[in-house]
User: Fold these one by one.
Assistant:
Number 1:
Amino acid sequence: MTAEQMACSHESFGANVAVNRIEDKGAFMADVQIGCTQCGLPFHFIGVPLGLSYARPMASVDCTELRVPIGPGAVRPGASGTMRFETEVRSVDLLNAIAPEGTC
Ligand SMILES: [Zn+2]
């Protein structure tokens, strides 16, 4: 991280989403990257397992790319699993401290 990036308050963001069609798997993937447009520092995703899966979101080894399996159209709530909403806010330091090994 440069001195400029350390001093930046990260107030403006940009995102890049690449959507890929995996023909031999019949699947679609969205690869998401987010960064600060002021200093160029990439953001990392929190609480995501590392790797690549066609069944669940996962992240690159540096946690700066979220790899999300997607599909065309809408689905009914709960169709792809249990619905869960969390409202607890924790600091990033605490999240990093409690993240299981192999997660962001
Ligand atoms: Zn910044």
Number 2:
Amino acid sequence: MDARGSVMLVVKRCDDLVIQQTLRGQQVGSYFGNAVVAVDLNGDGWNDLLVGAPFYFSRHPEAGGAVYVYMNGRERFHSEPSMVLTGPVGSAFGMAVAAAGDLNQDGFQDFAVGAPFHDTGCVMIWTGSKEGVSVEPSQVSHTKVGTVWFQDLVRQ
Ligand SMILES: [Ca+2]
Ligand SMILES: [Ca+2]
């Protein structure tokens, strides 16, 4: 066993639980698997998987916290993430990941990622698309002295 973390996909067969696939984290201590959400990002009817690793760290480019996106290849997830979203250094981006429904009404499911250590805390909204996930967050919300304000980073 190492400390890279893993996510196991388990199916129920009769009365037994069988491990169907294991996705492994890439960095020791990244807390890969701290948050796991299944959501159909590209609207093909197959749930895709988001896995948070809030203590992932990268120096070049500087990043802290990651969310790994695994697209569903029908019955199995690709063993390598199709995309890795990262947050600001020390932000614990990916501590919380939640399906948010279709926020921008484009027919694709969207999701929210929490970065609790970024300033006073921050939630970023990422949108699903035919290809999987938008490259940049579409919306970032910060908390500031009890009020919430929204900043559009990318206008759709
Ligand atoms: Ca899908
Ligand atoms: Ca959407």
Number 3:
Amino acid sequence: MSDAQQPAVQLNHTAVYASDRQLSAEFLAAVLGLPVGAPFGPFLPIDLGNGVTLDYYELRDKPIQSQHYAFLVPEEQFDAMIARLEAVGVTYYADPHHTEAGRTNTLFGGRGAYFDDPDGHNMEIMTRPYARP
Ligand SMILES: [Fe+2]
């Protein structure tokens, strides 16, 4: 899609379910090097660079369905993010099915890795977006 065809509609926020919103938001924020925002009602927000807010929302009496969230991150910050995962003992993987532990991938000419958040959401960091045909 060319710039001239960019849609005017943008993702603004989405809820991320967590059994402990503070724990989960702080985990992701620490890995990505971002601040956790002030609570907004039942939500605990993390603001991302493209204007999208992840609103952590506590779900206590239901199982949490694992979702996939992928973050485009600067190449120069990727190693620090991997180091933070290693520092807190969270295993990262080269692949979305978590079979290649302790490795990163080089998809689309960039680098990427997958890791679980405290509730099992499959998080991905990558330095280049997926190239779709
Ligand atoms: Fe992905």
Number 4:
Amino acid sequence: MMNPSMPKNPQDPRKVNPNFPIYNGKNACKLYKDLTDQVIIITGSSNGIGKSTARLLTFMGPTIVFACRDRAKTLAVIEEIQQETKNKNLVFMRLDLSDLRFVREFAKDFNSRYQKLNILINNAGISMDERRLSKDSYEMVFATNYLGHFYLTNLLLEALKRSHQAEW
Ligand SMILES: NC(=O)c1ccc[n+]([C@@H]2O[C@H](COP(=O)([O-])OP(=O)(O)OC[C@H]3O[C@@H](n4cnc5c(N)ncnc54)[C@H](OP(=O)(O)O)[C@@H]3O)[C@@H](O)[C@H]2O)c1
């Protein structure tokens, strides 16, 4: 069955932009969609999977909000991606998912700056060997990976609904 979240008419990304990175093997990204004018948030895009996701999507032209906790580290990542992709619409906005106060502040700031949110990628996550509590006294992994994202999604739901188009 066709995955409804996939573009209906995927294009070969290399035909659109010859610099689009294609990795060899079964994990190759073979889809391209013009995302110009779209706004995307990616949590934890300063590293790992989030960073790779941001890099690929940046080639498709959207505004990407890097929702991360470390400003200096994230600005370096943005600089690196910008040099490669020439997309100037990459923005850092501070978000610490383990603290619900920061989640609330992030959402308030985002909602005041942007009228829409086309895609929200709840990627950030941690794992821990020891039990620690967050500022709000929840277990830290649960607070960061689940509660923070759940609260964030709720606070951004109106922006997501406003932007939802039946195009994917
Ligand atoms: N890699 C795997 O094999 C694998 C497998 C299953 C699931 N996952 C999940 O996939 C996601 C990404 O994994 P990854 O391997 O790319 O991890 P990663 O390289 O460790 O990157 C995690 C990202 O999350 C951010 N982050 C951590 N705590 C945060 C907080 N409190 N607030 C905001 N951002 C926070 C980190 O920010 P900093 O740069 O500031 O640390 C980093 O950008 C995670 O949710 C992970 O659980 C990964």
